[in-house]
Amino acid sequence: MPKLALIIRHAGPETLAENYTSALVERGFEFCPLNVYESAPGFDKFDPPGLDEVDLVISLGGPQSANDCYPALRSERRYLSDAMSAGVPVFGVCLGAQLLARTLGGEVSPTGGYEFGLRKIWVTEEGGRDPVFSKLRVPLVPTLHGECFTVPPGAVELAFGYMLCRDGTFRRQSLAFRYGVSYAFQFEPQLTLNELRVWNRELADDYKLMGPIFDPSFEAEAHLREFAAYSPIYEAQSREMLMAFCDNAGLV
């Protein structure tokens, strides 16, 4: 029988993208999209299928904060908690990762800066041994965020990085953790070159959030140019990481 993946989307431009959707189709998944952003501005609708119908939950990014009191986000945090309690693996990306961290007792706060581009990450010893995260052999990832999480109790930090803040200082931030068979990523493992082209068009103003020491036009051009050269490597290792995630969670 087909397996069902619930795809929680918080913004129209942010999708699972072809690299990941095609990989999951090969694994026998069908998709149930849940577009939280369609209930804006109040974000009051979160109506997922019952967890007895779901084999995998993927929660993607968005411009909201995990600290927002929107009804949909509160409901999503409860749903993620129930999913993990029921043994349903969760794959959290960006906002989805922050919601997962808060669900598990971590904290989410502003970084003091904003990232939109390729960034070097530092993989922890545990991350290097992890059956999923170790597939990310080149530690260079695309980012899009202005908040970060603390690693929640009982979770294992897999990677960290440094945010160049608007005041010119650097701040250490956790970028990935594992909790059981669920994973949280404060970067964009699903990103493809085609999706970045959409982001550069639809989310162009986000480059302005990086602060006065950055030139938005240069950052947008450089990001697209650099990722165009790197994307074949990144998409291949990210796809391998997703396959390892499925294997590790028993989604065969």
Strand order of the largest sheet: 2-1-3-4-10-9-8-6
Total count of strands:
10
Q: Can you tell me the CATH superfamily?
A: Class I glutamine amidotransferase (GATase) domain
Strand content: 25-35%
CATH topology: Rossmann fold
Q: In terms of per-residue confidence, which ranges show pLDDT below 50 for 5 or more consecutive residues?
A: none
- By DSSP (H or I, 4+ residues per run), the number of helices equals 6
Oligomer: single chain
What is Rg? 17 Å
Structural domain tally: 1
Biggest β-sheet strands, sense, barrel: 8 strands, mixed
Rough shape? Answer: globular
Indicate the structural class: alpha/beta
Helix content: 25-40%
CATH architecture: 3-Layer(aba) Sandwich
Identify the CATH class.
Answer: Alpha Beta
Mean pLDDT over the residues: 97
Distance between the termini: 11 Å
Order of helices and strands: EHEEHEHEEHEEEEHH
